[in-house]
């Protein structure tokens, strides 16, 4: 486990940018936390650092928002599973296909039940009393040497 604190929206965007620098094809980043915890902000920082010129919309209604070159340097599917009622619905999204040459960034991964990839980087975002956010990472072996935070 590794903890990082973000005290502002700019710092949360920076955390996303730092993750983008080490992101590679086949990666899954799973973002958990309550409404307003900063999941979409972190995702926007990551996507901006990959080259996305405009602000990434929350994929709450689309569920899956794919990005591909030249829009970004690495194909990424930004996924928001908040509206899924049953973990089996996640299989219908075909998320595995994005991992052949790109990465997945998944908000509300707990909606997948036990279907999460074992090598996923699990990030829990929690509110702190002073309004800051704590990001707690469960680092799988493939991330131990790439984790960009001290």
Give a quick summary of the entry:
The chain has 150 residues and is α/β, with parallel strands linked by helices. It is built from 4 helices and 7 strands, in the order βαβαββαβββα. A 7-stranded mixed beta sheet has the order 1-7-6-2-5-4-3, with helices on one face.
How does this structure look, described?
- This protein is α/β, with parallel strands linked by helices.
- The protein has a single domain (16-131), classed as P-loop containing nucleotide triphosphate hydrolases (Rossmann fold, 3-Layer(aba) Sandwich), CATH 3.40.50.
- It is built from four helices and seven strands.
- It has helices spanning 9-22, 39-49, 88-91, 141-144, and strands at 2-6, 28-32, 64-67, 76-80, 103-107, 121-127, 133-138.
- This is tRNA threonylcarbamoyladenosine biosynthesis protein TsaE.
- InterPro entries: P-loop_NTPase, T6A_TsaE.
What does the largest sheet look like? Answer: 7 strands, mixed
Radius of gyration: 14 Å
Q: What is the CATH architecture descriptor? A: 3-Layer(aba) Sandwich
Show unreliable segments.
none
Structural class: alpha/beta
Q: What is the residue-mean pLDDT, rounded to a whole number?
A: 94
Note the beta-strand portion: 15-25%
CATH topology-level name: Rossmann fold
Q: What's the CATH superfamily, by name?
A: P-loop containing nucleotide triphosphate hydrolases
What is the class in the CATH system? Alpha Beta
Distance between the termini: 12 Å
Helix content: 10-25%
* Widest sheet, order of strands: 1-7-6-2-5-4-3
